[in-house]
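Researcher: Hi, I'm a grad student and pretty new to this. My advisor asked me to get structures for two proteins we've been looking at. I'm not sure of the right format, so I'll just paste the first sequence and hope you can take it from there.
Model: That works fine. Here's the first sequence with its structure tokens right after it:
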Amino acid sequence: MAYSTRSYARSFSNSGGLPPAVKWLLISNVGIYVLGLVLRLQFLSIFALRPVDVVTHFYLWQLVTYMFLHGSIFHILFNMLTLWWFGVDLERMLGTRKFLNFYFFCGVGAGVCVVIGEYLFGNPRGLTIGSSGAIYGILMAYAVLWPDQIISMFGIFPMKMKWFVGIIGAIAFLGAFTPGSGVSDVAHLSGLGFGYIYIKMRRVRGLRFDPIEMARDRYKAWKLARAKKKFQVYLKKNRSQ
């Protein structure tokens, strides 16, 4: 898959090297993969997404760490190339912090959907690895923002971005009804869904839509309210003495 060079395609400003988030996501994913190969490390037992561990043992970190594990060279190659090809322009448009929020919103959201899906219809003891949920979110966001951008599948089949995402979405949907395929189509579909939600709701009543930032602000407000309450209790105790 590659960008088209046709004159009516959107022009890209890829000068100046990779933006920070894409660069460090590439380095961390490839670095962890190579480290596992060279040192023969087994990350799967603790860091892969296993729904039963998340629900019964509260291994909540798996909703993040599974995104940095890949099973084969082709698996990581597809995900990292897609991150490079489409993530660069998305990060430059959103900004580094918001792009990272978007990336983990899609990836963690896909992980949650995998946990629910495996408990309802699959095998909660099965393992899921890969950044495909976040990557598919990037593809959907790109298709929403630049639907008529021409890309070339393997340099052979030129098509608009919106049609390409429609095709991979249809493949993931059909694959979801084929258990035992070894591909987490639930993660792919939910990644597409979360990518669409994020981009479509970037402005809600004039405010920027950023779920992670909203959650962070709510947590800060909760901590402030808790500290205020403790301080009030402390003052009442001192006054009563």
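Researcher: Oh nice, that was easy. Here's the second one.
Model: And its structure:
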Amino acid sequence: MSVGLVPTMGALHDGHRSLVERALAECDRVVVSVFVNPTQFAAGEDLERYPRTPDADLRSLAGLGVHAVFMPSSEAMYREDSATRVHIEGPLGSRLEAAARPGHFDGVALVVTKLFAAARPDRAYFGAKDAQQCAVVRRLAADLDSGVLVVVCPTVRDHDGLALSSRNAYLDAGDRARALAIPRALAYAAERFDAGERDAALLSSGGRELLEAEGLAVDYAAIVDPDLFLDVSEAGLGCVFVIAARMNAARLIDSLRLGVDAAPRVPGPA
């Protein structure tokens, strides 16, 4: 009997539901975890105000037909005398998202290790939007000989092209309109790549200009290899364009595999 695990932090949206549906189609039993993991939030980040909708999440998961929901407390997951940590070495644990949020991926790695131990899954399902996280989890699963197949599922986007995220709840109407620069930047790079451009610096700088033109504070906009997330000079098939940008209270990330993922469709200005 195969077991599928879908780790989430709750505030479930259609992106999460697509992961659950994929797991239900491929596994005999599916467990969904709902846990806002404190170890992946740094001091001053949005742990306390992160959206929490446990009752709605349980209703949604019951309607989908999952077989179990794991919704532990922080005290149950992390005892006061807990002394074990998981550390990600190398570029994956030090660049881009790891540099912008020190300790974040060590917290992700710790909770994923605990979830793998608790659920004993055959497959675990993650969304492609969080591309570096997916690479970290793939490395973790392999390095610890977990036997878990990490399944990365396509990013689900709203009608305007913005990737679904629980943090979208932080956006007011004006911020959301500005945030559409993120899928526009991905589409720009994808279209230029499909037209034959291979200079990674030109592709990423063009995307960054679109972000900055809308007043977004860009943490990074880079084209990297899909395994170690090192910068590349020549963009090749499957290289990943990763973006993180801030608008007031919201920090959003997105990604696209060049030559593989379809360019987001974003409406033009009204």
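Researcher: Is there anything I should tell my advisor about the second?
Model: You could mention this: The longest helix spans residues 104-119.
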